[in-house]
Every structure is written in C-alpha cells, then in structure tokens.
Design goal:
The chain has 3 helices and 7 strands, in the order βαβββαβαββ. By secondary structure, the chain is of the alpha+beta class. The chain has a single domain, classed as Aminopeptidase.
Amino acid sequence: MLFRPALPEDGPHIAALVAAAAPSFGAKEYSEDTVALVAVDAGAVVGWIEGVLDGAYTGPGAPVPPPHGYVLALVVDAGWRRQGVGTGLLDAFVAEARDVGCRWVFLFPDEGKDVEGRVRFFERAGFEAVNDPGEQWPAMGRRTHDAR
C-alpha cells in the first residue's frame, strides 16, 4: 500500500471512489491550501483524505494555538475497509501537519448513520474528543507528535 499526495490524474479515480463509497458527499470548494492524499494499491486509488494545514479550531478546549490541521474528508473503498487504509491515510495526514508545524489535527465526525462507529474508528486512530460542552458529537483532535 502506497500513501502519497494526490495527483491531477487521480481526480477521476477519487470522484469514482467518493461516488461509490460516500455518495452523500457534496461537491466542495476548498482553498488552494487543501492537502489531498491517496492510498494506492496495484495502481488503483482505494482511499482518499483531504484537509487543510492552516486552520484554526476556535471551539472550546483548543489545546494549543493555531495553525491546526483539519481533516475535511476521508473515504475508503468499501472493499478495503478494516485493512488499515483509513488509519494509514490519517497517519500520513497527521505527519504532513507535523512537518509544517501544526501541533494538532482536528476533525468533525459525520453525524449521519453509524456515527458511533466512526467515533470509535477515530479514537482507535489516536483522536480524542475535545471538551465541547453541550455537543453530542464534539470535534476530535490528535497531537501531531504522536504520528505513527
């Protein structure tokens, strides 16, 4: 399994992956500072993560000042789930964040069906709930210095 930056020619493969594995994702407009990484096996894109490395978590409980990394989207082909692809993509993104000076990476679990399963997955990947009183599903964060 290879984890690498997404290339322009990966675009159609990422779009097909998202359409098949996460059809609820809508088209998003991200800044040019967006970081996209892919997981590739035998030449096929089997996972994708996208985020920014210049964000600022403004909610309560932010453990360090910005810049913060933010995971905006993570999609793994259904046939490749539970094989380390998602965790590998998260680790690669956290390492990128660490390399540019971010000390924390944040994400917001999709609150749709099976949110509990996604929260457990992110916890196993080293993310922890951020103190955010009143939120059922608060932001989750991970220190970059513990990138695996």
